[in-house]
Amino acid sequence: MSPSRPSRDGGGRHGGRRARSARMDKSLCAKATADSDQPTPGYMYNEIGRITHASVDACRQLEEYLVKRLAHSSVHVKLKALRVMKHCCQHGHLTFRRDMQGKTAVIKESMQYRGPPDALHGDQFNRQGGGGAQG
């Protein structure tokens, strides 16, 4: 291969893998904050935490996405978004934590949210919303 042509594997300066990871994986975040009572698998928290280290753009996209998920009417989505935020603040890049400090009003409002009681689980998910994401 000649030195003037880029490699076919998406190489270049940063390599194909690194360039793709600089964007937020929206499908992963959607699965992690899905509207169901199934818990988010632990590996997803780690994968989303890595997004905060990928690039500043990816970190900001993740912040915006999670804040939008807090506006969802489902208590499941709010609780999962709060848990992802908590994990990213504890294990993610410092930029994420610093930016989340500016969004405390939205976060506190979501923690106070009370949805209608679930037919099977009653008020269990509403009670988890207040203490489930604190740390």
From TrEMBL:
Biased composition (Basic and acidic residues): 1-12
One family name in Pfam for this protein: ENTH
Keyword Protein biosynthesis: no
Transmembrane segments: none
Domain named ENTH: residues: 31-114
GO cellular component: cytoplasmic vesicle; trans-Golgi network membrane
Chain positions covered by the region annotation Disordered: 1-41, 114-135
Cellular compartments annotated: Cytoplasmic vesicle; Golgi apparatus, trans-Golgi network
Main location: cytoplasm
SUPFAM superfamilies with a match to the protein in the record: ENTH/VHS domain
Key words, A-Z: Cytoplasmic vesicle, Golgi apparatus
Protein name: ENTH domain-containing protein
Organism: Diacronema lutheri
